[in-house]
Fold:
Amino acid sequence: MSPGPLTPAGPLSDGTVTLRPWREADASFYATAVVDAEIQRWTTERPDLTEDAARKAIARHLAEPKHVALAITDAATGTPAGNIAMASADWSSGVAEAMYWLAAGWRGRRFSSAALRLLWDWSVRTLGLRRIELVIDPDNAPSRRAAEAAGFRADGSAPARKAGGSELVRYVLDAQPERGEETRRAP
Structure:
């Protein structure tokens, strides 16, 4: 199985949140947002990212996407609110890992869970994914709540963590079998 296009053909929206491709004009928002202490605490975003570097990264991604990278925006205004991305070491496996963050002023509005649901729906239909995984630090309670609100569940496994870091928790959302397709379970 090869994935469909790694960028949606059009915006994905639930009427509150819209996911759309990043635009070079969003570089200032991105570079400003990622210096936030919470984004730095929970993600691997570079604290020294400049607007110019963000613009170049967006342009490279738009020219040749190797992963999914979308702006989370307010559906009513189009204002960028955050980032949601998804990568896979092997798209043909049907499994990918999603990552997300919201700028400080947009937290607490359930945008993360809505963005995860929109990404999931599109990924199953377009990319043929059967599972999306999230790797969340157990101390990141807002991210855990967003994952659970979107239908993800902790699966009890913990991926490797960088030396000195706390254990991480893997959350998963699996595709439901098509009607008439049997679900195989281990005895």
Residues 179-187 have pLDDT under 50 and may be disordered. Residues 30 and 54 are 7 Å apart (CA to CA). Strands lie at 12-13, 17-21, 68-74, 80-87, 95-102, 131-136, 153-154, 169-174. The longest helix spans residues 111-127.
